[in-house]
Amino acid sequence: MLATSTTAVPTSADWVHEVKWDGMRVLADVHHSHACLHTRNETDASTRFPEIVTALTGQSTPADVLLDGEVVLFDEAGSPSFKKLQNRIFVRRADTAQRLAATAPVTFMVFDLLRFNDRDLTDEPWTVRRQLLETLTWNSDRITVTPTFPDGESLLEATQEQGLEGIISKRIDAPYFPR
């Protein structure tokens, strides 16, 4: 789902809020022991981020998921660095990507679940998708499910204080709109 800019933070209980990560949007298609990463333009990004592919295929459950998230490179201070991520975005060679994965690893910040064990979830409300997403576990710190917050105004203030990009607000009853 693509974000829409607004000047007011929704405040009703019908909304949840997440940090807007400064990274590269990716869909991760995991089927049994195979994972493929795709950009919004459907370009295969698997070679660029081997540590994410490895982490996704090492998951314990389930065997078939489609995840929506942001690939983020955190700097030494723990802040997202899109500038440093750019060195990874344009990599085409597997050996270069492996070297960079060892020296500048990325994290896949997962914020939505679109398929679960062959079940298309895009028509389900966000609450159903999120509940299923939170049941997933990985044996890697390279995959993180983004936390949600009920108070968007406080989250926005905190992200501004930390120099982060901002927040994303989601209706809890909303289905997933691909574009």
UniProtKB/TrEMBL annotation:
One of its GO terms (molecular function) is ATP binding. The keyword Ligase applies. Keywords: Ligase. The keyword 4Fe-4S does not apply. Residues 103-179 form the ATP-dependent DNA ligase family profile domain. It holds the Pfam family DNA_ligase_A_M. InterPro entries: ATP-dep_DNA_ligase (IPR050191), DNA_ligase_ATP-dep_cent (IPR012310). CDD domains: Adenylation_DNA_ligase_LigD_LigC. It comes from the Bacteria. One of its GO terms (biological process) is DNA repair. Belongs to the ATP-dependent DNA ligase family. This is DNA ligase-like protein Rv0938/MT0965. It comes from Dermatophilus congolensis. The lineage of its organism: Bacteria, Bacillati, Actinomycetota, Actinomycetes, Micrococcales.
